[in-house]
Design goal:
By secondary structure, the protein is mostly helical. The protein folds into 2 domains: 62 residues, Multidrug-efflux Transporter Regulator, Chain: A, Domain 2; 53 residues. The protein has 6 helices and 2 strands, in the order ααββαααα. Strands 1-2 form a two-stranded antiparallel sheet.
Length: 132
Amino acid sequence: MTGQVAIGEAARLSGVSARMVRHYEGLGLLPAVARTDSGYRQYGEADVHTLRFIKRSRDLGFSMEEIAELVGLWHNRRRASSSVKRIAQKHLGELEQRIADMQSMRNTLAHLVHCCHGDARPDCPILDDLAN
């Protein structure tokens, strides 16, 4: 990529929708971008790189607050990697907890499905469990 591109091209190059590009800009994740005389946004290579960084962070499930902090650390050449690791470790712990919670829900539901005869009778352990 050379020079400045319009929002549609920046979106295409980064894999982020134009709507999300504007959203990220509004949140301050992107610095204010240049504009043409007629007011159209113009994005440079660094902006597209930042959009890719944000997209990858979102793909890994980081919150917008965490992404804002990560973008700030990424742009800060004097950052301590321990700051980045702290954010990633916290997020990893949250993911592990959600996975454990979902596995527990899956196991409970699998047990209830197994216990239900699924026939014409009205009694159903699934409904009984949900009612308790």
